[in-house]
Amino acid sequence: MAALVTKMPVFDHGFVILRNLAGPTRRLYDEELRSNMDGSAQGYVQIEREFDADDIDPANAARMSFDQMDSDRTREEDLKLCNYLMKNKHSSPFEMIQVWLEIKMPIFIARQFVRHRTQSLNEVSGRYATLPAEWYVPEVVGGKAKNVKQGQADNLDDNCQMEFKAYLENHCKTGYAHYLTAMHNGVAPEHARMFLSLNHYTHWLSSTNLHNLMHFLSLRTDSHAQIEAQKYAEAIITLVRMRLPHCMELFDKYRRLS
Predict the structure, then answer these.
(1) Which residues, 6 or more positions from 69, have their beta carbon under 8 angstroms from its beta carbon?
(2) What is the number of alpha carbons within 13 Å of residue 26 lying toward its C-beta?
(3) Would you name the residues annotated as active-site residues?
(4) Percent of the chain at pLDDT above 90?
(5) Are strands 120-123 and 98-106 parallel, antiparallel or unpaired?
(6) What are the tens digits of pLDDT across the range 239-254?
(7) In the chain, at which residue ranges do the beta strands (DSSP E only) sit?
(8) So what's the pLDDT on residue 87?
(9) How far is it, in rounded angstroms, from Cα 132 to Cα 137?
């Protein structure tokens, strides 16, 4: 069985990695039907699972209410129950799946994501590590929207965009050079990092449950969310959908805002 993608690149230096996905039931192996060269059935073989979590985990967890976890139900019955749970806003069964993500993103996006306080975070520290020369310059520079307090519009001419990107690139290069010089001269890294801009990349590990992740994704994929935030949210959705296709189908059906 071909390995599924665990890493999605986002912009020039950014990415999302699905580090782990776990449910309440340990599943070390799946079965796969292998065929001979002539197409005849060879039989089932055990293959090692990448992650434990499965689309039926929320249904199995919900059955605890009736003291019927691990009861002999078909997969179809479990998926039908998952649909009922999501449709009727039963959140705790989906909280039984835990998701670990490693994300590298511009600081200004990280500061939007950290507002979702249901996740646990460990972020690279500029007090201890020398941050690499990596910053984000948008491919398309948005103009100020005329009818809203936030957001952007596609209303800047090419010359204005090129000038902005050139100034931003030069600003980041100069600031980073000052950052390295300051540390070379003995300035503490926690002060030297003040030269870095909000578009510099940061890097963290996060952990949250599937229910809270879906809430986060519903807000950050909304058309009113910042474009860069939407790109990261869609990368997360792609990775999780490969492992939990039915749960993410329910997300599309019941949880997306737009």
Answers:
(1) 60, 61, 63
(2) 1
(3) 220
(4) 78
(5) unpaired
(6) 999 999 999 999 999 9
(7) 7-10, 14-22, 29-35, 41-48, 98-106, 120-123, 143-144, 152-153, 201-209
(8) 97
(9) 15
At 48 the three-state DSSP class reads: strand
Instruction: Specify the residue for token string 């926690």.
Output: 190
Contact 50, 18 (CB under 8 A): no
Residue 252 token pair? 């599309």
CA distances 187 to 123, 133, 195, Å, are 22, 18, 12
Task: Tell me the domain boundaries of the chain.
Answer: 7-31+44-121+200-255, 137-195
pLDDT, one tens digit per residue, over 27-73 is 888 777 667 766 676 677 778 888 999 999 999 999 999 888 888 89
Cβ-proximal residues to 162 (8 Å cutoff; 6+ apart), any chain: none
- Please check whether the domain covering 7-31+44-121+200-255 is classified as CATH 3.10.450.50: no
Structure tokens at 130: 């020398």
Single pTM value for the model:
0.91
